[in-house]
Amino acid sequence: MELNVITTSKIRRRYADDSIIVYLDILIDEVNLAQISHFGFSIKSFTDQHECIDFITHLQDQKVFCFIVDQLVENNILFLNQCPLVASIYVICTDEQSHEHWTKDYRKIRGVSGDLLLLTEALKRDLQLAYRNATPITILAPVTSSEPINTLNVMFMYCELLKETFLEMNYGEQAKCALVDYCKCKYANNEVTLRVIDEFDRDYAKYSPTWWYTRDSFVYRMLNKALRDHDLELINKFGFFIKDLHHQLKNLHRTLSSGKFTVYRGQR
Predict the structure, then answer these.
(1) Which of 35, 118, 154, 238 is deepest in the core (most CB within 10 A)?
(2) Which tens digit of pLDDT belongs to each residue from 115-137?
(3) Structure pTM?
(4) How confident is the model at residue 148 (pLDDT cuts 50, 70, 90)?
């Protein structure tokens, strides 16, 4: 039995997150699900391995982080390891030593343990790395050098007009309410994220836009995805936030430019 009822239309829809956690088990362990759901990402759980694979293959461009019990891993590891949508695999087992000899052959297996806390810590590191290495954001669509200069100029002007539109708009409380309602619909089955959305609705003015944006939450994930996918409808819903963020960064720049400060270049 799945945590959520999965239909073909739901499988084919675009999800709010770049990342989805898939949980495949013989019987759904609600304790395990509760621990994994702490991260606030969309979670889909399955007891049928064929439905699980069908779900993954019908996704678009999301990264899949898969938890799977050892009894099912042998039949599915080749697909999961080769599927480009699957970023990482975490094997839940009761006997770690019995799996050590073969799991090392699959680069996407990031953990093999009966301790779910260790596996979720590995998931946390992998999620952070995935977002750190995300594709740079641009509102402009990709172009080639063979395109006419006029086309590039039009695209640049479009980007500038979009930015100016956000800055000139007079947003009220209804703009935030519209975004909150939209996000609640997207995360209807995710209690952790719904609590964060309620916090955003209640305490938005209490914290700065940079605080909300740099926090690992739906704000960062949804806005970045909207910008990467050129989702103008969703970008427009974030218009009030983009404006507030722009003004705060502008004020910070004005403050910093008044004096000298030291920056450091890091390299891994």
Answers:
(1) 238
(2) 988 999 999 888 877 766 654 45
(3) 0.60
(4) low
What ranges in the chain are assigned the alpha helix state H? 8-12, 30-36, 49-57, 70-82, 97-103, 116-132, 149-168, 173-186, 191-203, 209-214, 218-228, 232-237, 239-256
| Cα-to-chain-centroid distance, residue 228 | 12
- Read off the DSSP letter of residue 61: S
Nearest to 210 by CA among 235, 245, 242, 241: 245
The per-residue pLDDT for range 7-18, each reduced to its tens digit, is 333 433 444 567
3-class DSSP state for residue 216?
coil
Average pLDDT over residues 209-225: 90
In a domain, 138, yes or no: no
Q: Are 35 and 116 in a shared domain?
A: yes
Determine the pLDDT at residue 196: 94
* CATH number for the domain harbouring residue 125: 3.40.50.2300
Domain holding 126, by residue range, is 8-132
Unique residue bearing structure tokens 């403050």: 255
In angstroms, the CA 265 to CA 250 distance is 23
Q: Considering its fold, how many domains does the chain have in total?
A: 2
Q: Are residues 101 and 176 in the same domain?
A: no
pLDDT above 90 for 241: yes
Backbone angles phi, psi at 90, to 5 degrees: -125, 120
Instruction: Give me the amino acid identity at 44.
Output: K
- 182 shares its domain with 72: no
Are 14 and 127 found together in one domain?
yes
Query: How far is C-alpha 255 from the geometric centre of its chain's CA atoms?
Result: 32
24-33, 123-132, 162-171, range with greatest mean pLDDT: 24-33
Domain boundary residue, one of 107, 132, 157: 132
